[in-house]
Q: What sequence folds into this?
């Protein structure tokens, strides 16, 4: 009877071959057919990553894509039992390994962050907060869509084609990503002041008047009437697009 | 009863029309755990109409790695929340050296593996507080075997005291790839343990190799083997049509469901003996 550690070792060798392509002899294996496992396993990884990062996979060359995917799969141990979540590990791997593609494509880190955030927002568990639709954007306390995330991007990957982005585009781009009731993911550009107001709303519902007062107090500034009208207009649009989902009861 | 593997590719059409009307649906829990938004709404609509069977992909019950009880806890919760009729998994491994591979690798047919896998199945059954059904997977090469495939499977079923998910297409694929008689193989399985049957299509990629793709229609020899299986069983068992790729029009899937139902009913009709 074969000791279990030998069985384990053969299993490890087969799994290692699927990940790296490095073959070590295993008794009884059909060497022609075993290649199918590497092909099938790699296709699953490649398909999932292409689906999660469609713009990135078009931005880099085919050779660069194949190399980074292979490098990831052979050197990173995928921890999530849920395959749809695996692309997040790929994104983190590219960042943590300081992959050469990040130098070659300066907007790549921002692009991957943006593309993964779209997947995560689309798939994430439902979140609910108490709110009513009876209210007024100007006077009622606004309730923020809990299915949202704020992002600060160094490149405008949400505005321009990735191939057209250069180092000259480097800056501070703030956006809110959120999921509407149809399940669609939307993105809205934000100024730094609006980012701060959204952060206030993520803590507790506040009226536009309270948001403005809190901002003025924190940064020791006075908003002009034009600025205040722009804030009201922003939140009216945000309500229509469901970044703001409604109003607090009280 | 004949069900269908519920796939996102046809979820919207499925919800909006009555073209496809299975007796139940099946999903992989890991594809739905923690999922909200659009897909959750679609899934909930389907759950309101159909009983749910589940078929796991990532538990990796044959892995040398320890079982992932954090994940198993999520599976248990999912089974409870969805009122799942049955939970099944593959007799294979998908994780090794702490890394998921997201596909099904063949376990070496060894006595040591029998004991290890049976112990894993027992632990899973204890944790989930239900029997699970284990599926015979298709495989493209044996790995360091010291037992025959049938002896390996039967030993695990006996030692773990679990149910069997009999994938008839997998038996056909394996019998072709490893050159044995599929009917003889099925006749040697403990039929009383069969709680669930899978049927699917496959693709012949070489003169000596078939891949279990779930991307084609079921072929006639697999239908024949299905009829033989039902005759061996002599009882009704839930049957699932799996179609994961190259999804055809829904009426074509319904045609396959109808055909499976028809074959099953015919195979279960009592034999008529002439009396003198």
A:
């Amino acid at each position: 009877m074969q000791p279990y550690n030998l069985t384990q070792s053969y299993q490890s060798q087969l799994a290692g071959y699927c990940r790296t392509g490095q073959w070590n002899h295993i008794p009884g294996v059909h060497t022609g057919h075993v290649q199918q496992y590497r092909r099938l396993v790699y296709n699953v990884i490649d398909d999932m990553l292409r689906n999660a990062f469609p713009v990135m996979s078009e931005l880099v060359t085919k050779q660069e894509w194949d190399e980074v995917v292979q490098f990831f799969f052979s050197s990173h141990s995928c921890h999530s039992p849920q395959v749809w979540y695996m692309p997040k590990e790929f994104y983190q791997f590219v960042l943590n390994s300081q992959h050469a593609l990040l130098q070659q494509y300066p907007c790549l880190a921002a692009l991957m962050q943006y593309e993964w955030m779209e997947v995560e927002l689309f798939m994430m568990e439902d979140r609910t907060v108490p709110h009513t639709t009876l209210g007024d954007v100007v006077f009622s306390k606004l309730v923020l869509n809990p299915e949202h995330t704020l992002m600060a991007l160094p490149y405008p990957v949400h505005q321009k084609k990735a191939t057209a982005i250069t180092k000259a585009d480097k800056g501070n781009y703030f956006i809110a990503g959120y999921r509407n009731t149809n399940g669609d993911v939307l993105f809205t550009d934000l100024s730094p002041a609006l980012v701060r107001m959204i952060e206030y709303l993520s803590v507790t519902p506040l009226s536009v008047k309270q948001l403005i007062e809190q901002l003025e107090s924190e940064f020791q500034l006075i908003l002009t009437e034009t600025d205040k009208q722009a804030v009201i207009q922003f939140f009216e649009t945000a309500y229509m697009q469901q970044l703001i989902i409604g109003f607090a009861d009280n | 009863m004949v069900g269908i593997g519920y796939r996102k590719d046809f979820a919207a059409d499925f919800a909006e029309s009555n073209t496809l009307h299975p007796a139940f649906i099946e999903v992989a829990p890991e594809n739905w755990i923690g999922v909200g938004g659009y897909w959750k709404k679609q899934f909930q609509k389907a759950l309101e109409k159909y009983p749910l069977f589940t078929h796991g992909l990532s538990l990796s019950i044959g892995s040398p790695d320890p079982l992932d009880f954090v994940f198993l806890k999520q599976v248990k919760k999912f089974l409870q929340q969805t009122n799942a009729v049955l939970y099944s998994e593959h007799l294979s491994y998908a994780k090794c050296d702490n890394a998921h591979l997201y596909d099904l690798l063949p376990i070496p047919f060894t006595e040591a593996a029998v004991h290890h896998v049976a112990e894993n199945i027992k632990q899973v059954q204890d944790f989930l507080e239900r029997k699970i059904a284990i599926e015979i997977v298709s495989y493209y090469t044996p790995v360091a075997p010291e037992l025959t495939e049938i002896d390996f499977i039967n030993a695990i079923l006996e030692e773990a005291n679990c149910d069997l998910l009999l994938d008839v297409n997998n038996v056909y694929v394996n019998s072709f790839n490893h050159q044995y008689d599929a009917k003889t193989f099925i006749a040697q399985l403990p039929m009383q343990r069969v709680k669930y049957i899978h049927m699917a299509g496959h693709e012949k990629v070489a003169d000596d190799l078939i891949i279990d793709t779930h991307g084609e229609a079921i072929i006639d020899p697999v239908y024949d083997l299905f009829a033989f299986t039902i005759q061996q069983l002599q009882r009704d068992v839930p049957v699932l049509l799996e179609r994961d790729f190259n999804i055809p029009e829904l009426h074509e899937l319904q045609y396959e469901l109808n055909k499976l139902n028809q074959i099953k009913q015919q195979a279960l009709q009592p034999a008529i003996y002439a009396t003198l």
Notes: The radius of gyration of chain B is 19 Å.
